[in-house]
Amino acid sequence: MSSVATIADVAGQAGVSLATVSRALRNLPGVSADTRARVMAAARHVGYVMTPMAMARPGGPVSRVAVVLPRVDTWFFGRALGALVARLAALGCIAEVHLLADPAARTAFFAGVSGSGRLAGVLVVGMSLTPRERSALAGLPIPVVGLHSSLEPATSVDADDTRMARWAVEHLIGLGHRRIAMIASEAGQPVPHVVPQARTSGYRSALAAAGLAERREFEVCGADTSDGGWEATARLLVGRHAPTAVFVHTDEMAFGVVAALTGAGLSVPEDISVVSIDDHPLASAFRLTTVAQDVGAQAGRAADLLVRAVASNPACRPVELVPRVAPSTRLIIRATTAPPSRPRRRRPRQPARAGSTP
């Protein structure tokens, strides 16, 4: 990418007028759903970024910070993005949101970031990077901070995902469970993301510490969505021996897990316990036992680190930030976990979705 993508690039890619692109990007009436979708896809393809209007601030010109993330359609990414944009605005900065949802957008961003002299810093959210992408960021004369990202040697604000997973599984072991399954979120591409890897490691290390053998038929992966949790549960229940408890990587997946177990004729927690990580706003409504993390506070801390570095770096020299920060987390015990009951005499049926016929 030799230059910053413009609205004309989007119009050319989508095959529509500049006025249509403008209306579609601002979500104004007069554009069909199909055309709007085509414009949004074209914007992602060419790497176009629509930023808010510049805000004046007493201390001088507005600093622009690139917020880079692979998706926005899960609770974690939505919560992190909202908190980052709000905190950066409060600190006098504008967030340029770069959604790298496909390989073309990802390649375009990292190829062009070194030539983007308007940026004061970069925040990378929920991504692991290839060696080439790391090199592109390492060569920048501006600060780079990660949020739930592996950016060594750059700093990153993270929770201890291995420890959170261990807490969740140790809670199940403490209740007396010995057949504990794991429903994991997919590792991601092109580089496996550190969070699923760490949570899987925590699950396995907790089993090993308790002298429990790993059973690979009890490890199932799915998309990090409610539907992904439902589909992974359906595959888990095909096995010969049903687990008495399930550790799920995220609350959003756990919502689908609980629905699938109920659809299979199983009762939670009487037949099977469920524990996960996040403390999603709906976790209390589902009475879900979970390990809570404050993503909003983590995002705010990442923004503070970056803006502090920007303020101390007026000459755009390479900067070194403080070491990694690990915000606190806690286990919240609700109603989806209990000691194992006596084994069921019949195997669970395949789960039926709500409104369907078993």
What is the count of DSSP helices, taking H or I runs of 4+ residues?
11
Structural class label: alpha/beta
CATH class of the largest domain: Alpha Beta
Q: How many domain units?
A: 3
Integer average pLDDT: 86
SSE arrangement:
Layout: H1 7-14, H2 18-25, H3 33-46, E1 63-69, H4 75-90, E2 93-99, H5 103-112, E3 119-125, H6 131-138, E4 144-147, E5 155-157, H7 161-174, E6 180-185, H8 194-209, E7 219-222, H9 226-236, E8 245-248, H10 251-263, E9 273-278, E10 289-293, H11 295-311, E11 329-332
Parallel strand pairs: 1-2, 1-3, 3-4, 4-5, 6-7, 6-8, 8-9, 9-10
Antiparallel strand pairs: 10-11
Helix pairs in contact: 1-2, 1-3, 4-11, 7-8, 9-10
Folded structure, characterized:
The protein has 358 residues and is an alpha/beta fold. The protein has three domains: 1-50, lambda repressor-like DNA-binding domains (434 Repressor (Amino-terminal Domain)), CATH 1.10.260; 53-159 and 296-328, Response regulator (Rossmann fold, 3-Layer(aba) Sandwich); 161-293, Response regulator (Rossmann fold). It is 38% helix and 16% strand. The chain is built from eleven helices and eleven strands. It has a six-stranded mixed sheet, sandwiched between helices. Strands 2-1-3-4-5 form a five-stranded parallel sheet. Helix 7 (161-174) packs parallel to helix 8 (194-209) and helix 9 packs across helix 10. It is globular. Mean pLDDT is 86; it is low at 52-60.
